[in-house]
Amino acid sequence: MLIGVLRRRALLALALPAALLALAACGAADRGGSSSGDAGGFATSRLSIMAPADPGGGWDETARALQKAARDAKLADSGVEVYNVPGAGGTIGLSQLITKHGGDARQLMVMGLVMLGAIETNKSAVNLSKVTPIAKLTEESEAIVVPAKSKYTSFEQLVADLKRDPAKVSFAGGSAGGSDQILLGLIAKAAGVDPRDTKYVAYSGGGEATAAILSGSVKAGVSGVSEFADQIAAGKMRLLAVSSDGVKVDGKPAPTIKDQGLDVELTNWRGVVGPPGLSAADQQKAVAWVRRLHDSPQWQQALKRFAWTDAFSAGGQFRQFLSSEQTRVKQVVTELGLNA
Question: For the chain, is the Cβ count within 10 Å smaller at the N or the C terminus?
Fold first, then answer.
């Protein structure tokens, strides 16, 4: 049984007869994209990247970082559009991708662990079985923060109050069932608290969650480190803990949840997918384009800027990872009672 831990996982077309083209493209895509693969004009037409959340959150940051890197690296001749479709942990955007953009090779969507949790928690009518996996991009530690004026100066103090009366310790975070709420559930369970008794306030965008934390509307916040980094550096938030090892915030090693007495570790990952109905050749071109973008100095700079861990995998490797993550997240969400 999986409790208390979600561990970091690591996890063109050639000039062939038409009858062999699809087979050749599928083979290369399942190997994660050929290193010599040609993006084949994939982004010569204007490319659209959907961030299925409000501006200011991790998906929006990722989509706009992709946009900037593609522009600066000159990998998008006609430009890259980023647009937001917020709601229901990304499942509204997912529904639009599936129902409105089938077969459109100019369309990508940023997604990740949050969406898998939201699908299970919301009992969504749509899931990721119909999308076209392109690439996993990043992993990121989660952070537990409080306003700078909070009485809590340590994670242990926060957990002590959570044990005494979980309903009085409210947390702001991203969409219901996402990585933020999963982390809170894991913390509660490790502390001997029923996760269903915790008070979690879900927001569809990072900007709204940040505003709630800073205003004191909630006692604490949980989200990706990059979403709080500026507020911590400005002295407006106090960092209490992060959810994995080796993280620096504001230039200093960050204290982990595990080091402070609870056996909990979690990393949030993000990637990109395409709509259903892409041809094997189009999927291969998309994988090759994202691989070129990943390898560019401009994207490597974005990784450093946002303190994201490079977790790139593509094509068939990403498809296998996505399948295993869907099984894992469903198990954890059920175990924590978040989909009851």
Answer: N
